[in-house]
Amino acid sequence: MIILGIILAIVGLVLSVPALLYIGIALIIIGVVLEVMGMAGHAVAGRRHYY
């Protein structure tokens, strides 16, 4: 999810499409939050680890 967000953010910047940039940033933030929760040992979406 983080990698997809980075790709969308870069494409949004290069093509000057603000919607892609905002979606990319949102995916990066959500991915980082899920990754931190998984690393802390909390169950994420019913799974012990989030990959």
From TrEMBL:
Provide the transmembrane region boundaries.
Answer: 6-34
What Pfam families does the database record attribute to this sequence?
DUF6131
Cite the entry's keywords alphabetically: Membrane, Transmembrane, Transmembrane helix
This chain belongs to which protein, by name?
DUF6131 family protein
